[in-house]
Amino acid sequence: MESILIVDDDINLCSLLKEELNEIGYDAYSVNSADETFAFLDSGHLVDLILLDLKMPEKDGFYVLETLKSRKADVRVIVLTAYADVKSAIDSAKLGASDFISKPYDFDELLITIRKVLQKEKEHED
Ligand SMILES: [Mg+2]
Q1: 123 assigned to some structural domain
Q2: What is the 125 CA–ligand 1 centroid distance (Å)?
Q3: Do the domain assignments include residue 21?
Q4: Residue 28 Cα, ligand 1 centroid: separation in angstroms?
Q5: pLDDT digits 0-9 by tens, 69-83
Q6: Is residue 122 a part of any domain in this protein?
């Protein structure tokens, strides 16, 4: 099953979403900052998809997107943020995000988006 890394400074959201994703069979992990994200990836964990919060203290989600892009990281990103506005969505897409979901998220909608993005990844591999 695909592995998903949740990146959000909201600890409650992380634990709830991780539980929801684990329950339906994804291999879900969470971290609470940009630095933890790269520590996690550098420790050798294979991650198919990142669910990324844009608004985090210190280094934000755009920093994570920029760093993933500069590393040419082989991972899909869905941006998940309370600050859903057109400009954020466009900026995220320019930096390589595959999709955009606004918080509070609807789990079924999120799941459809996750499946769609992971399916696209498979199609690219074939
Ligand atoms: Mg946040």
Answers
A1: no
A2: 32
A3: yes
A4: 18
A5: 999 999 999 999 876
A6: no
Distance 12 CA to ligand 1 centre (A): 11
Q: Is the dihedral of CA 21, 37, 112, 16 positive or negative?
A: positive
Residue 11 in this model has a pLDDT that exceeds 90: yes
Residues 61-70 have pLDDT tens digits of 999 999 999 9
Range of the domain at 100: 3-117
Instruction: Tell me, yes or no, whether 100 lies in a domain.
Output: yes
> From CA 4, how far away is CA 67, in angstroms rounded?
18
* CA 92 and chain centroid, separation: 11
Count structural domains, the chain: 1
pTM score > 0.70 for this model?
Answer: yes
